[in-house]
Amino acid sequence: MTVEELLNSILREVKPSPEDEQKVREVSEKITNALKSETKALGLNVEVEIYGSVAKGTWLKGDVDLDIFLMADKSIPREELISGGLKAAKRIFEDLRGRWIERYADHPYVEGWIDGIRVDVVPCYRAEPGKWLTAVDRTPYHTEYIKSRLSGEALDQVRLLKKFTKGIGVYGADIKTGGFSGYLCELLIVNYGDFIKTLEAASKWGRRTIIDIGGYYRGRLGEAKKKFQHPLVLVDPVDSNRNVAAAVRLETLCNFIMASKCFLRKPLRVFFDPPKPVKLTEESLKRRLESRGLDLVAVSFGAVEAVPDVLWGQLYRTLDSLRALLENWGFKVYRAKAWTDEHGLTVLLFELESSILSRLKLHMGPPVFSEEFWNFLSKHLGKRAASTGPWIEGDRLFVEVERRFRDVKDLLEYFLKVDGGISVGVRGKVAEAIGRGFKVLKNTELWNTMSVNADFNLFISEFLDGLPIWLKVWLEEAEANFDEARDVKAR
Amino acid sequence: MTVEELLNSILREVKPSPEDEQKVREVSEKITNALKSETKALGLNVEVEIYGSVAKGTWLKGDVDLDIFLMADKSIPREELISGGLKAAKRIFEDLRGRWIERYADHPYVEGWIDGIRVDVVPCYRAEPGKWLTAVDRTPYHTEYIKSRLSGEALDQVRLLKKFTKGIGVYGADIKTGGFSGYLCELLIVNYGDFIKTLEAASKWGRRTIIDIGGYYRGRLGEAKKKFQHPLVLVDPVDSNRNVAAAVRLETLCNFIMASKCFLRKPLRVFFDPPKPVKLTEESLKRRLESRGLDLVAVSFGAVEAVPDVLWGQLYRTLDSLRALLENWGFKVYRAKAWTDEHGLTVLLFELESSILSRLKLHMGPPVFSEEFWNFLSKHLGKRAASTGPWIEGDRLFVEVERRFRDVKDLLEYFLKVDGGISVGVRGKVAEAIGRGFKVLKNTELWNTMSVNADFNLFISEFLDGLPIWLKVWLEEAEANFDEARDVKAR
After folding, report:
1. Of A163, A472, B58, B372, which residue is least crowded by CB atoms under 10 Å?
2. Model's pTM, two decimal places?
């Protein structure tokens, strides 16, 4: 299969059919009309507009997200707009018999489901560029800009890029993903022309890339570099003070770069449509753990009660804190990862070189010249029976002393049972969840949880592989390719 | 016992009696006369002079070292002086029925034993200060200087300082010790006045101390600091270009400083006269190893054929190289020490957190942006079955791969069996000895050697204590003192 054939076959899957578009149009109209009369009934003077991927024509089949904005004039007080807008949204979801939930990203909105389509209803202001009143006031301008720059074939290229970033797990500007928004994908196509050219550019991106479509920083790129301290910078064409790629974390960016390099070397369907990892059995878990000789340790607890961005922000920071805690106490942490189904189970997972350490540890004391000399010596006196030294190396005192925690389980249990670990850097909402009860599980002790939670089972399976499933499949397929490549070099 | 009583009792032991002095004088005269007639018979025009501690009156009872110099005029060619001088020395030792051996430090000399007294016969030139022809030409000036500055009571203070430095193991400018020469001890008393004042000063020394008795660098101490890159600098009063303390290693210096601090806090006999460590039995060795939970690993081989300074220089550098080797391959080295009886057995001893490592190790690859990206990925391909990853952390690729050496024994045997380890930094003479056969011993495997070599047994015993025996005894005695000291501070 050629690249063109592959991309065409992907497009056949992700491009909405006329029937799909018809359905979305119908739902849009139904809701738009309902919102118009509802806001009128509430005396809220707003215009109801469709923005986002549906307005721009870049949505993916089976994956539509309808963004409906209630646009107000600046004269309407913020509180009135928000409360009235949300009230109208909730009412129409009720009337249309749709589920709904109030959400908050940078700004409050209502998310609902009508006829299997997700609909966000967002109150905002009609603002002039640069004079934004709320975080979402730019959206109409974004939609306008993309509509003016992309059409026809180019929209398909956006679809390919979105599907690709979804497939490799870097789509989404949420905290969990730290990846690429739809608007960012669209602008990359505007900038580079098509999907393949975008990947070619990305495969050459460096540690800091700046893309300035609007040319705002022409001749002053250093200024932009200083202003935007993110690994990827794409200056918003409708707002030179905003980096569209601000949410993209270095790791996510690098995964995208790696995927681009690999795809260009050998294009495979797996980037767009990765399979699930292999589900582990008790037997296969045991076998894999034994053959590796490293130790898995999981802190397992219930749901963290916070919206996803807060939840994931706190989970990531907690993960860093606990990793540092383990390392401070002498454990070698190879990897650390957080996982949660966001309602029932949360797990912080660590892979250690060893979960049990030697009885004694090396401890560096002060230099002999130091004022701390006597303190150190006297502190050491009482522990003489269970220790070695002190001796001098270079100009410092050294001793070997008994570790307070030899088993990582003792260490984690000791610090987490007090206030859920607040004192060692567990973040507030996570500490609350841990405070309601937690377990520290080691190696095969994970099986109980894996046996009742299939998603967690798959998470452990992928964790043990240690690489994203798309890369695993790609490496298997690409093995032959590498030899050829080496031969070319050798000649 | 007061400090004065303690020092007096030490002096009674180390100060030669009139009979001791008489005996040394007789031996001196006997040898001096023999050398005078022998050199005359050989037609070698030299004067025979006594220098060193006997001439200066700073020698210790039972520990005398007679330095006899054959002083030549500059007109005599070097070769003639050396060959004639050594020949005369050997003959008189033969005539007087003494053992002798030709030695070389910076300069050749003959060491012999007459009536239980060690005698060094050293050919040298009568040179003007600063115009030295051989490394030993300064000695007459050193003797002259000390004789002009120290007498009576002050000589006893030198004896105390010498005995103290011997007791704590820092006496000797040889490579093995890296410590204090007799001349350095004498100059410290010249500079500070007496033994206690020297220790008081030393207890306040910092990372770099400069003592300039002659005042050569008055107002230009920065220049001296630049010129002499040693932790302790004592400018030779007879040669401003020479640091008398050049041989003193940082560690030895710090041990002296520590001992000074401890002695001043609680003066004990142990500093002058430490007991031997406790000899271990097979049972006690086993018990101590088990209770520590660390691993001892020894590379054991035969004699290194070189004079002590070369031998120890190469042993120390080899120890550093092997320590680095172990650390490069993932072993955590807590301590490393070399030991040899200098004729039959040599041991390089390492204490490891663990001598067996996990099957997999974490390996950091290149950044995703790097040109090494494809090389890394292709190198990893063939090892996929036995490894984890690659995944991205920050901007780098990481993998977990199988260790080449899990057991430190395999690692050491692999690298030492080729050329005695030259390729991993084992120094020439040591590599030759290892090349003639070596063993890598772990923990209780050391017992066989310890059971037949009492000195080696004591070395292991002190190594397991991890502190010099004088400090061990002192800490036991001082325990009560510390609490008092803390109370004083608290008030």
Report:
1. B372
2. 0.85
